[in-house]
Design brief:
Structural class: mainly alpha
Number of strands: 0
Number of helices: 34
Largest sheet: none
Shape: elongated
Helix content: over 70%
């Protein structure tokens, strides 16, 4: 196990140091010619007996990979007491495969105060499984300010489950510029945010973002990915895209996939497909699914199926579910059932719900119910609602209500409507209102209409108004009627028209009546006819009454009989009177029968 994260190189481990006066790793920035001149100078000094020159020359040769040339110089400097040479001799022996001898020299250097040697010795003991010794030496290194020692100690403590100690030393490593430490500290803060309340979580996410930024700025591709995700959730899409792009270019497949989704949402499907393709070819199942969906939308079903299979091969069970959807859309119910079953057996809850629907449509209610139950128990809101429908169809109202309530509690709009209506039937108006408000707020036109009727029934009568006092005060029930009407609810449209007519707003009333009538409402057509007749447009009123009467509206048929009788069209009037008498209601039937008889007598006279 590489406890050093992503910087486990000779310099990155901190096992290689330059000299007793400068133990920290240095960057290779000199030109080759300068390095050659420096090596010659150090070699001359070493041959003259300079211990520090021996140590530096040995380090230079070790860095270049010349182990045979480095070893005698490092041994000579170590014998003379140079602790950096002892540490580097340990590195050399470790590279040759003499781990125990390397540990002996690291111990000598660590006891002499080399933090890099203490870190290397701690690493050695951990690799051997001696965690107490590893912790001792890593703590020695970390407490003396060695960055990699702090990181390795944090990693060890995290492995042991010491969360507080791990965070303390990971933070120390991060504050000293260790990019993997910054990334892992950010991940720990992210996980902590998931367990906190809203305010506490927000603070932890903000701190995590700072550490992700530090690690990403130092080239950590996974940090760039997570930073992009935080920014995307916050709506800062442009900057999120930049970090996704940085991460994706460094080879992070999840960032390439996320960048694809960001581009798709911006309408750039062509470039989205480029990044999804790159991620999918690197084995990202989510990207393969996205490519499949893109090709399915274009009607390229064979290509879509190929990518869904690739997603499944990558271990993404959504691939099997999407294959089921694809086959179902093509009417291939046999293969669809096969793929749904594969995904459902793997725990895909929506596949279980889809499989149950498929079986139910085929008439296999017995086979469908267990899959609905499995999907519902694993959190599928649609499956819980479907179980409610299943039980309601059998007349098992109490069981149906329990499933509706479960789905409603998870935000299912139609389930909330069903619970609200059940509560209304039971006379629990307060509970009914609560559920109807949830459904209406979620966009259900029927729920908005039902809520309006509940509020309308308890609305007190309008008080008498003084002259000049405005009569129009829009109540809450009117607002809900209007919301339902604007969503195309025909009964709500008729009711809004009636309320407008009561206010004397003939134009508004006619508009709503006409919308309802044109959508097939016989009450809307009848009321529109009444309004037009009062305004002197009887011919047009007759058109709408005819439409209402043909749809079974008794009062509209009676109106037509009266119009025909007045015009002297007795036979036509008798026909409409008979139609009105048959349609009712009782008051209409009685009046229409008298009119019919009178017209019959007139015709036979």
């Amino acid at each position: 196990m590489d406890v050093m994260g992503d910087k486990a190189t000779l310099f990155g481990t901190g096992r290689f140091v330059k000299s007793s006066s400068q133990e920290e790793p240095r960057d290779e920035t000199g030109e080759a010619a300068d390095e050659a001149a420096e090596e010659l100078r150090q070699r001359l000094a070493a041959e003259a007996g300079d211990v520090e020159a021996m140590s530096v020359l040995g380090a230079m040769l070790l860095r270049r990979g010349d182990l045979d040339g480095a070893e005698p110089h490092l041994r000579a400097a170590t014998t003379a007491g140079d602790r950096a040479a002892a540490n580097n001799l340990g590195v050399l022996l470790h590279q040759r495969g003499y781990a125990d001898e390397a540990a002996g020299w690291w111990r000598i250097a660590a006891v002499a105060g080399s933090t890099a040697a203490a870190h290397a010795l701690g690493r050695h003991h951990r690799e051997r499984g001696d965690e107490p010794a590893a912790e001792y030496w890593l703590r020695q290194s970390a407490e003396q300010g060695h960055t990699l020692g702090a990181y390795a100690l944090a990693d060890l403590l995290e492995h042991r489950g010491d969360t507080a100690g791990a965070e303390r030393w990971m933070r120390a490593a991060a504050e000293r510029g260790h990019r993997e430490g910054a990334y892992r500290l950010a991940r720990a803060l992210d996980r902590g945010a998931a367990r906190e309340s809203d305010d506490g979580a927000a603070a932890l996410v903000r701190e995590a973002e700072q550490w992700y930024r530090q690690a990403a700025a130092r080239g950590h591709r996974r940090a760039a990915l997570h930073l992009g995700a935080i920014l995307e959730r916050r709506g800062e899409l442009k900057e999120a895209g930049r970090w996704y792009l940085t991460s994706a270019k460094d080879g992070e497949t999840r960032a390439a996939c996320a960048l694809g989704f960001l581009l798709r949402d911006a309408g750039d499907t062509e470039n989205a497909a480029v990044w999804w393709l790159r991620a999918a070819q690197d084995g990202d199942g989510n990207a393969a699914n996205a490519l499949g969906a893109l090709h399915a939308e274009r009607g390229e079903t064979q290509t879509a199926e190929r990518w869904y299979r690739a997603a499944m091969d990558a271990g993404d069970i959504n691939g099997a579910y999407n294959l089921g959807l694809l086959c179902a859309d093509q009417g291939r119910t046999g293969p669809a059932e096969q793929w749904y079953r594969r995904a459902a057996y793997a725990g895909h809850r929506e596949a279980a719900n889809a499989l149950a629907i498929l079986l139910l449509r085929a008439g296999d209610e017995t086979g469908a119910e267990p899959w609905f139950s499995k999907a519902a128990e694993t959190g599928s809101v649609d499956a819980a609602f479907n179980l409610g429908i299943l039980h309601a169809g059998r007349g098992e109202e109490r069981s149906a209500l329990r499933w509706y309530e479960r789905a409603a509690a998870a935000g299912h709009m139609e389930a909330a409507l069903q619970v609200g209506m059940a509560r209304l039937r039971e006379g629990e108006e307060g509970e009914a209102e609560r559920f109807l408000r949830c459904a209406a707020g979620g966009g259900s036109a029927e729920a908005a209409y039902r809520l309006a009727t509940v509020l309308d029934a308890r609305r007190p009568p309008e008080p008498a108004h003084e002259l000049g006092e405005p009569v129009n005060r829009r109540s809450e029930c009117e607002e809900w009627y209007e919301r339902a009407a604007s969503q195309g609810h025909r009964r709500a449209q008729v009711r809004v028209g009636m309320l407008a007519a009561a206010r004397g707003d003939v134009v508004e009333a006619a508009r709503w009546y006409r919308e309802a009538a044109e959508a097939g409402s016989r009450n809307g057509a009848f009321n529109l006819g009444l309004l037009l007749a009062r305004e002197g447009s009887e011919p047009e009123a007759v058109v709408w009454w005819t439409r209402a009467a043909d749809a079974g509206h008794g009062r509209a048929a009676l109106r037509l009989a009266l119009v025909c009788a007045r015009r002297g069209e007795l036979a036509e009037g008798q026909r409409w009177a008979e139609r009105a008498a048959a349609l009712g209601p009782p008051a209409v039937t009685e009046r229409a029968a008298r009119l019919r008889d009178a017209l019959r007598e007139e015709l036979s006279a």
